[in-house]
Design goal:
The complex is a heterodimer of chains A (205) and B (345). Chain A is mainly α and 205 residues long. Chain A is built from 10 helices and no strands. Chain B has one domain. The chains are: A mainly alpha (205), B mainly alpha (345).
Chain lengths: 205, 345
Amino acid sequence: MLLQAIAFYVFAAVCVASGAMVVVSRNPVYSVLFLILAFFNAAALFVLIGAEFIAMILVIVYVGAVAVLFLFVVMMLDINMTRLKEGFLDYLPIGALIGAALLAEILFGLGVLGGTHQGTVSAFTKAGTQMMTVDNTRAIGRVLYTQYFYVFQVAGVVLLVAMIGAIVLTLRRRPGVRRQRISDQLYRPKEESIALVKVPTRGGV
Amino acid sequence: MVGTVVTFLTTNWLGQAILILLECLAVTVPLLVAVAYMTYVDRKVWASIQLRRGPNVVGPFGLLQPFADGLKLLLKETIVPSSANTILFLIAPMITFITALIAWAVVPFDDGWVIADINVGILYLFAISSLGVYGIIIAGWASNSKYAFLGALRSAAQMVSYEVSIGFVLITVLLCVGSLNLSKIVLAQSGWFWNWFWLPLLPMFVIYFVSALAETNRTPFDLPMSEAELVQGFQTEYSSMPFALFFLGEYANMILLSGLGSILFLGGWMSPIPYAPFTWIPGVIWFALKIALLLFVFSWTKGTLPRYRYDQLMRLGWKVFLPVSLGWVVLTAAVLQFGGWVPQH
């Protein structure tokens, strides 16, 4: 248990510190790398509370795919650091407000502020005891496609809309572009593509 | 004496820590030797394909060649370009090497021979293999060289694209097994060798292997370091030990993906014929033989196939493999559901 507590505090401390570094780093590439470190430590925290499925999905989706594309874009952009930092104070109040709202939500959810939200806590503990009997991949599978089926489908539709939006925004039609049509190449008959010529000696073609 | 050592290793917390360390060494040391000899076998296979002899000077049949190469790389000077980002430049090869090694923690070598028999083993492997791209992309950026950067961008795009189809391949296998635990995946394939998943899921096996070639940046998908246009891609600025770490990491990744392929499709440690003389051979040897078979195909393709063009590579990944593997997932799920073969646990 002591080892677990030490692990928790180390991961939590690194997670918070790298989260802060994301904001204060001068170089945006460092920011993304610290973001990746924060994701990692969050995944480690999930492992510590026994939610190994969520931990792995966090690493696969966010670290393995989303952050790679972030890094991709940030590395290719030639960003002026000083100009990027100029608007920082303008956005600070809005950011602080959102942060405070999220913090308040967590505290209310856990029942720290006001005792009326015990229901959430009991739901958490109930889910926790259910997870003890089956591994948590199975536990998620059981509720995701039954109880939360419609919510899950709506989430999928939201992602689909975002994807179509991204395609529409980036699609450019350029006339006169020559493309390789692989099926045409493969279906070209022998008669069209090969000509056998009997060349007379010293005559040339 | 033995009894006290066993009790110390299993009950005392210090003993348990030592035991974990010993387990890690028992996996890592043979793995590194295997990596060294993989480079040797690779060169011998290409040499045979090109009617040459390959390394044959250092030691009998050139068997000490990998160690000579390793020693040479170790003793050379580490050169960091003056305009490079030093910290990231040196961290990148470590990331590649470490991710290639830590993935082996969940690989079962025989029944029960596994360091961490976790329930989400296959997701862990998938997560770790998706991290390998960071070593490459950070190396490309930190080198501050256009060849390295272009190589890194190509590699990142390629690995992200082919991971998608590998993910669907894993899902089909999981549907047939009903568990994410690697040992259970192997146990689900027990029996004759036609019970292994390579036969019922043959198209997926092909897609898996081709995607593995793309994941490890091997020919015909070695665009990130195509020497004709990008010198040596993201490795251009690397020399000495950092280069060796990249090199070892790449080969360890190849062995890892071959190992994963043999667990998913070739029955892991199972013997091909479940009767007496074959079952006497330890499972770990069968597992090694299956890995060796897949690694031979890796070398064979490198010696045989020309390089893809970049747009062809992307077309194959997104327009061929992705729809085919997605369709196969739906097909497998439908067959299992309506055939009444859904695995019960």
